[in-house]
Automatic annotation (TrEMBL), chain A:
This is Mannose-1-phosphate guanyltransferase. The gene is MPG1. It catalyses: alpha-D-mannose 1-phosphate + GTP + H(+) = GDP-alpha-D-mannose + diphosphate. Keywords: Cell cycle, Cytoplasm, GTP-binding, Nucleotide-binding, Nucleotidyltransferase, Transferase. SUPFAM superfamilies: Nucleotide-diphospho-sugar transferases.
TrEMBL record, chain B:
One of its GO terms (molecular function) is GTP binding. The keyword Transferase applies. The keyword Transferase applies. It is an enzyme of class 2 (transferase). Residues 17-210 form the Nucleotidyl transferase domain. It comes from Endocarpon pusillum. This is Mannose-1-phosphate guanyltransferase. It comes from the Eukaryota. Its EC number is 2.7.7.13. InterPro entries: GMPPB_C, Hexapep_transf_CS, Mannose-1P_guanyltransferase, NTP_transferase_dom, Nucleotide-diphossugar_trans, Trimer_LpxA-like_sf. Involved in cell wall synthesis where it is required for glycosylation. Involved in cell cycle progression through cell-size checkpoint. Pathway: Nucleotide-sugar biosynthesis; GDP-alpha-D-mannose biosynthesis; GDP-alpha-D-mannose from alpha-D-mannose 1-phosphate (GTP route): step 1/1.
Amino acid sequence: MKALILVGGFGTRLRPLTLTLPKPLVEFANRPMILHQIEALAAAGATDIVLAVNYRPDVMTAALKRYEQKYGVNITFSVETEPLGTAGPLKLAEKILGKDNSPFFVLNSDVICDFPFTELAEFHQSHGQEGTIVVTKVEEPSKYGVVVHKPSHPSRIDRFVEKPVEFVGNRINAGIYILNPSVLKRIELRPTSIEQETFPAICKDGELHSFDLDGFWMDVGQPKDFLSGTCLYLGSLAKRSSKQLTPASLPYVHGGNVLIDPSAKIGKNCRIGPNVTIGPNVVIGDGVRLQRCVLLENSKVKDHAWVKSTIVGWNSTVGKWARLENVTVLGDDVTIGDEVYVNGGSILPHKTIKQNVDVPAIIM
Amino acid sequence: MLQVPVRKGTGSAASTKAVILVGGPSRGTRFRPLSLDVPKPLFDVAGHPIIWHCLRAVAKVPGIREVILVGYYDEAVFRDFSRDAAKEFPHIRIQYLREYQALGTAGGLYHFRDAILKGKPDRFFVLNADVCCSFPLGEMLKLFEEKDAEAVILGTRVSNDAATNFGCIVSDGHTKRVLHYVEKPESHISNLINCGVYLFATECIFPSIRSAIKRRSDRPRIVSYPSSENLESSFFRDQDDDAEKNEVLRLEQDILSDLADSNRFFVHETKDFWRQIKTAGSAVPANALYLQKAFQSQSEELAAPSANILPPVFIHPTATVDPTAKLGPNVSIGPKAVIGAGARVKESIVLEEAEIKHDACVLYSIIGWNSRVGAWARVEGSPTPVGNHTTSIVKNGVKVQSITILGKECGVGDEVRVQNCVCLPYKELKRDVANEVIM
């Protein structure tokens, strides 16, 4: 089987983290975001994976070489010379996606969920038509594009309504699809949108179905959602009683949903959780309070600091008695001084913060 | 030309008294919420009541045997303080004289002139209790004798911007003579300001006050300059009837400018620290200054510096401080206060029986009596720049108190953050708050 992951551009929405690493390599729950997707695709039997990118940094090529070997898949970069939207990249990769008659997966690289590729492929085969898109139930459909089904059919899609004012349904496009190679014939090689052009055309022919996603779903393309998505992901691990999670019986684990890399060091009298991920070689001092936060590799949180709703970037240091909250993001190698308070600060790499950041601000 | 040798003062021959003006309960409103529970002069900074610092300076002046506290608090208010001070300074007799109406600083002195003049002192110091300084009384006395002065005032330099909030002194740099004095001028006159500490010749000051009273009854006094300080006192004046009105006389407005015409009024300019203690927040810089002074003089009262004690720090002997807590600089921990493991206290006053739980952080704040700060809570004010004489700052266009103050028996929940707030007594703070007064 084949798959295409829409990676796109520089991931500016996830800055300052993406000033250091391309977005697919930023660790979500201690593993690069793209690894979650590659692993799930490989598990579902995908052998050819295309990454649709606007640019190809060396660091990404090197990382993906390793994943190719580890998961026994072929990974190809399909580099756009101009942005081709969400459908154009499919056409650009036609040689791979259309090399045989089997259907291929398409997914947005920002999406995190329990990827249901195997079930999705089975469902797609069962209805035998051109395309299936994964849909997820949302509380406020008025913010999204909503899927409306044909009357008297549970999965065949009738139309899409963008940001509906009146309730027409609560299922939205989750950014994960399985399509037959025939879909490629519907796409021209130009900047074009799969949501606005390709899908309505398939819909018209009655060839597009929906597949309900079980469990959580999140677009983690920006820091606020990255944190929310981490909470959902950890919650899902807990639900499955995953061995990856740090046991809640440990004295410092508070409220569960804590994922700590075995190489991390935790001090005395800490209270960690709920919803915390701690990366490799992280050092946590004594009396530290962590909740709803992500600590990336090699970062350090010193004694008695208090960290909530924050992403601590690689190699960064949080000082003693510092307090970080309200979607604070520290880039690579940032130092927060002792006793400093940061409220919603986005701190660019290599900065040292010695004074409070009282209101949300970008520190250049 | 022949000169009659008046008081060729040698310290031993001439006798000296001191008067400390302590004010009254209706005057300390700017010291709320702390003055809701303790009279301002008795509030502890650097481990001792504000007036103790004045008294200690007076007690060091050779020859002073008597100190008179003048104010309009109830007599009972200073009873315990006077008893303790009598033990600590056995050579000094301390008495409290109560005004039954606010007479003004000069009016009060005049009202109690018999008590002051008893024993025929040649001169007496007058100290406002609400200033924090090194009280260089010995140097003032030396200048007084050198110049054969009628009055010596303590002055300090402040920024030109700040000067108009104080009494301004124009002096002759060479002779140190005061040429002109004006209280809170509207325009810039001088950046040498009145510290609220004076030394008067008894034979001169009472006649000066008497003639001011006489002048007052002949010709009503011009309304003083508008400022918050004057507005408060003029409020009292308006309440009084005419007969009493004549007795309300303030040294600053009514006496000093006349003294400047006498040719025997001098200023001693101190280069040492000086701050007013007006607002409750100003207790934090006052605490810092007195602690630094104690540290420089190697006071035994202070906690020994260590990895977790950044000097200067005062810890009351009955307080309990966990060895992993980090304190200082400029911290006072009151009697029976409890500081938990891994707590951090900096530039703050923690009052009697207050508790700071483990891993909490207290910066630029006053934690009231019996108040509790929860685990991982953060109670925080803002630093006020050195030389700045205000305790408010502008944040997002709004004026807020730079020092966070928790009144008596307040509670801050675990992990809660309180920033630039003033919290009245008996309040529980369960959510984060910033830039507020909490009623």
